[in-house]
Amino acid sequence: MRFYFIYLIFNDLKAGTCIAIELLSIRYQSILSTAIRGFYVR
């Protein structure tokens, strides 16, 4: 029973890190695109 609980917590952490990485990548992509746009405008 305890191992199953640990497994559930581990799966939640894995899903949470995946979601956080996706959100961070989306944010960094927008920052990079705006920076590249500003660089090309100059």
Q: What does the model show?
A:
This protein has 42 residues and is mostly helical. It has a domain at 14-42. It has one helix and no strands. It has one helix at residues 2-41. The longest helix is centred in the middle third of the chain and has 40 residues, at 2-41. The chain starts with a helix and ends with a helix. The model has no long low-confidence stretch (mean pLDDT 83).
Q: What structural keywords apply?
A:
42 residues, rod-shaped
Taking the alpha carbons of the first and last residues, their distance comes to 62 Å
Overall structural class, as computed from helix and strand content, comes to mainly alpha
Extract low-pLDDT stretches: none
Helix content: over 70%
Output mean pLDDT: 83
**Percent of residues in β-strands:** under 5%
**Biggest sheet details:** none
Q: What's the helix count?
A: 1
The total beta strand count reads 0
Principal-axis shape equals rod-shaped
Secondary structure elements and their pairing?
Layout: H1 2-41
Gist of the model:
The chain has one helix at about 1-40. With about 40 residues, it is mainly alpha-helical.
